Amino acid sequence: MGLRGKGAKPVGKLAAKKGAKRRVKPWEKPGLSRAERVVAFVECLKITSGFHAGRKFKLRPWQKEIIRDLYRTDAKGRRVVRKALITLPRKNGKTVLTAAIALAHLCGPEAIPRGQIYSAAAGQDQADLIREEMVAFVMGDEELRDRIIIRNHVRTLTDNITGSRFKALPADGKRAHGLGASVVVADELAQWPGKRGRELYEALTTGMGGRAEPLAITISTKSGDPTSLMSEQVAYAEKVLAGTVKDDSYHATIYAAAHDADPWSEATWRAYNPALGDFLSLDHIRDEAAQAQQMPSMEPGFRLLYLNQPTQNFTAFLKAKDWQACAADLDIREYYDKRCVWGLDLASTTDMCALAMYFPDDGALFNWHWIPSEGLEDRERRDHVPFGTWIDQGFVETAEGRAVEPEFMATRLVELLDDFPKLEYMVFDRWGSKELLRLLRDKGFNREVHPHGQGFRDMNQSVPTFERAVLAERIKHNSNPVMTYGLSGCVIQTDPAHGRKPNKDRSTSRIDGVVASIMAVGFPTWGFEKPKPSVYESRGLRVLGAKAT
Fold first, then answer.
1. Closest by Cα among 354, 310, 357, 314 to 521
2. Cα separations (Å) of 92 from 233, 277, 279?
3. How far from 128 is each of 69, 99, 132, 259, 457, CA to CA, in Å?
4. Strands, DSSP E only, in 93-182?
5. Rounded to an integer, what distance in angstroms lies between the CA atom of residue 376 and that of residue 103?
6. Which of 32, 188, 276, 391 has its CA 20 to 30 A from that of 336?
7. Coil/strand/helix, residue 400
8. In this structure, which CATH number among 1.10.10.10, 3.30.750.24, 3.40.50.300, 1.10.150.120 belongs to the domain 26-254?
9. How far is Cα 431 from Cα 43, in angstroms, rounded to an integer?
10. What is the β-pairing status of strands 448-452 and 423-429?
11. Domain 320-490+508-539, CATH 3.30.420.240 — does that match?
C-alpha cells in the first residue's frame, strides 16, 4: 500500500483540482467543541471488521464520554488532559477507538504540522495492531487514501498535507530516545517487559516536553504484578478518581470488577464490559466462563481478560475428581505393538526423572518414574510421600547413586524401545539433554526426538490440550499413584500474555510425571509433519528444532 522510499505517494490519486470548491467536512463545521470535532471525525470513518464491518463508526455513549473527557479544554481552548489511562476488559474496542483517535491527530481535527504519533507495545506484532486499524480506516475512505502515505516496510503512515507521521514501536527503549512525540499510545502496558518497558515509556513521555499539547494514552487490561508500570498507573489513576490526588491533566477510565465480585454472574460481566451484547458476544463469554469453571488454571485468565480483575498468577491445575474419572483397568502388555509417543522430563541432580508413554489411538497413558537410590529415606521424610511403597509396587524405579545419570536413562529408554517398537517419536525436556542424546545415538536409539521447552512459549501449546483431554475423558490411565500425587500439588503459572505453564518451584508435589504427560499428549497437536520410518534407518537419531548432537 503506497510506494516505498523517496517519492512515495498516497494510495489514492490526489483528487483536489485547481480551482475546485473544497467541501466542508463534518468536523469543520463552526461552533463545535474540540471533543465534538473529534467525535465527528471518528464517526466519518468506516468499520472494516467485526460485527459492524462496512458501517460508519457509530460511537457509543461510553466511548463519547471518554473522548469528551480527553478533549475538554480550558478557558483558552487548550486541551487540559496530557496523560490518560483507559483500562477495561478484552474485546471492548480499546484498539479500534484508540486507532481512530490517533488518526484524528495524524490527519483529522487534532493534526498539527509535523506531528509525531507513536503506538508502542511489548512486541512489534502488538504495536502493529493500532497501525493496522489505522490503515484499514484509511483504505475505507477515499479522501484519506488521497492524502496518506502508507509505508508498511517501516510501519509508518504519513499525512501528505500536514507532514505528520505515525509509527509503531516495540518495547525497546533505545529506539525511542531522541523522539519528540506529540501523541503516544502505550498499548497493553501490563505486558511490557520490566526494565526495557519502563525505559521505552519514559523515553517517549519525557520526549514530549517540546510539544504544546502532548497526549499520552495508556490502554491495557490490568496487571497482576503490583510492582509493574501498569499497576503504578492504575494506583495513581485511582487516587485521581477518588480525589485524594488533584491532577486535572490526568484522565482515567477504569472498567474493572472488584475482587469480591462474582466472576460467573452475567450481571458482573455486563457491569464491566460496556460492549457486551453490542460488538462483544455474550455467547463467547459464556463459553469462556464454562471452560474456566472446569479448568481451574484458566480462571485467572478469565478474570483478567473479561473482568479486568487481576488475580494470583499461580493456580491449581486439575481437580482430583476429573483425573480419577479417567481411571481404567489397563494392561501394559496389550500395548506392546501399538503406536505411541513418549514425553521425557529429565532430572536436575537429585530430582525425579519421568517418562510418559501416550497411545493416541485410544488415549491410554502410562508413566515411569526414576529416583536416585541414595537418600531415599530423607526424600520420603522431606516430601511426605511413600516412595518405598511405590518402589515395591513397581510405580517408581531407582537408579544407583545420588543422581539419575544419563547413562542409566539411555539404557532404560533403549530397553523400553524393545518392548514398544512402534514409538513414533520422543518429546524431551531440553535441560541437560545433550549427553543423553549422544548416548541414545550410540546405543542405537533410532527414533525422531523433538525438544519441548519448559517455558510459556512451548508449554502454552501443550497444557490446554492435556487439560481438555482429561476433562473430556479422552485420556485413560492406570491410577498411577505417583501421577495422582503430582497432580494434587501441581501449580500452573500464568504470564502477562495469558500463557500457562507448570511451575515446579511453586508446586507442592513433584510434578515431573505431569510435565512429561503434558508434553506427550500436547505435542502431537502442534501440527508438524510426522516422521517417516523408512528414513530413520538411513540417518539415525535426529533432533528437530535444535542442533543435532
1. 357
2. 20, 11, 8
3. 26, 11, 6, 33, 21
4. 116-121, 148-151, 156-159, 165-170
5. 67
6. 391
7. coil
8. 3.40.50.300
9. 55
10. parallel
11. yes
Separation of alpha carbons 135 and 149, rounded Å:
10
* Rounded Cα–Cα distance for residues 222 and 456 (Å): 20
Sign, Cα dihedral of 52, 57, 62, 67? positive
**Burial group, residue 267, by CB count within 10 angstroms (0-12, 13-18, 19+):** exposed
Q: Round the CA-based radius of gyration of the chain to a whole number and report it.
A: 29
Query: CA distances (Å), 194 to each of 36, 208, 225, 237, 305, in order?
Result: 38, 22, 10, 20, 21
Burial of 258 (0-12, 13-18, 19+ CB in 10 A): exposed
Give me 60's grid cell: 457509543
Q: Given the C-alpha cell 474496542, which residue does it identify?
A: 93
pLDDT digit string (tens) for 93-107?
999 999 999 999 999
Identify the helix (H) or strand (E) that includes residue 299: helix 299-307
Q: Which residues pair with 170 in a beta bridge?
A: 121
Three cell numbers, residue 63: 466511548
Angstrom distance (rounded) from CA 196 to CA 502: 26
Q: pTM of the entire structure? A: 0.63
- Which ranges constitute the DSSP H helices of 223-281? 229-242, 266-272
Identify whether the C-beta of residue 171 lies closer than 8 Å to the C-beta of residue 192.
Answer: yes
- From the list 314, 505, 318, 483, the residue with the least C-alpha distance to 385 is 483
The three cell numbers locating residue 381: 521424610
CA contacts within 13 A on the Cβ side of 388? 9
Domain 26-254 identical in fold to domain 320-490+508-539: no
Length of the chain: 549
Assess contact for 526 and 426: CB atoms under 8 A. Answer: no
Q: Is the dihedral of CA 461, 467, 472, 477 positive or negative?
A: positive
Cell representation of residue 263: 466472576
Tell me the sheet residues that pair with 370: 353, 397
Integer Cα distance of 342 and 357 in angstroms? 5
Every domain of the chain and the residues it spans: 26-254, 266-312, 320-490+508-539
Question: What is the C-alpha to C-alpha distance for residues 291 and 20, in angstroms, rounded to an integer?
Answer: 60
CB atoms within 10 A of CB 277: 12
Cell 502508507 sits on residue: 150
The three three-digit cell numbers of residue 86, written as one number: 483507559
In percent, the amount of the chain with pLDDT more than 70 equals: 88
Residue 408: pLDDT over 60: yes
The pLDDT assigned to 50 comes to 62
pLDDT tens digits for range 318-357: 888 889 999 999 999 999 999 999 999 986 655 789 999 9
Residue 52: what pLDDT? Answer: 66
Query: Residue 433: CA atoms inside 13 Å, Cβ hemisphere, count?
Result: 23
* Residues 185 and 98: beta-carbon distance below 8 Å: yes
The answer to whether 312 touches 305, Cβ cutoff 8 Å, is no
CA distance 127 to 204: 14
The vertex-170 CA angle with 166 and 172, nearest 5°, equals 120
